[in-house]
Please model this.
Amino acid sequence: MVSLSIPPYVNWNNVKRVAKMAPYYWGDGMVTHQDALEKLVRGTKDASGKYVGGRGFKNFGQSLRESFLETEKAYNGVMAKEGGFFKYVGNTLKKFPSEVSSAWKAGGATATSAGKSALWGSIKGAGSAIGKRLPLIGSLIYAATQIPNIFAATKDGGLVSGGAELLKTGAKITGFTAGMAIGQAICPIPIVGGILGGMVGEWLTGLIVGKSYTEQKEEIQQETAQNMQQQGGFDTGSTNPFSQGVDPQQLQMLQEMVARDPRFRSA
Model:
């Protein structure tokens, strides 16, 4: 029998540490982790632009752990300065327009002094400023898209169900940003590594936390509709794998919902 050995640093205490700084990780923390891991794995750039001094993928787990500790250290410093996560997010968003404006002007000035296009220099400067805050902005946008799902789960299943969906959303955002950081740190192609890593991270997190309440409900409705068309009645769960564990009241609600939909009425 094959036995799996769990690294000693994967324990409940460390899980709580990750969860505590997850919101910060969605923003600056991701960049901090990426830079720290990139330095350990790929090294630093020399005068010719080549990476030197990196460990490569030897003892990658140790490099990942050390880069996380660097991120946690940065998190503690930021929270001590900002006074809490919500103040940090508010101050970050408040400073964002001025950061883009300053980067636009600085980029144009630098390009002009080098005899290059001021417009292109400004665009590059502003793009760099936007890219720095993109993880936080993207995370907030994703969280906003999940509000209807969380509301529906709370309405149908109570605070416990809504809280579970809230945790799922946070976990998926963290999985995506962690994947971005790791992917970009080890991939030499800008942006590509981050996107691919983020997709893998979100996919793996989805396997752990499961599908959202809305996705599960839609699957039950689709399976119910198929059963009604094939059997001329409502499947109570004997052949419907998605209805397992759904109480009779929920099944009755779905039956009435499907019955009112003209698309599912027999001709």
About this structure: The helical segments are 12-41, 60-82, 85-113, 118-145, 147-186, 192-209, 213-231, 248-260. The longest strand covers residues 43-45.
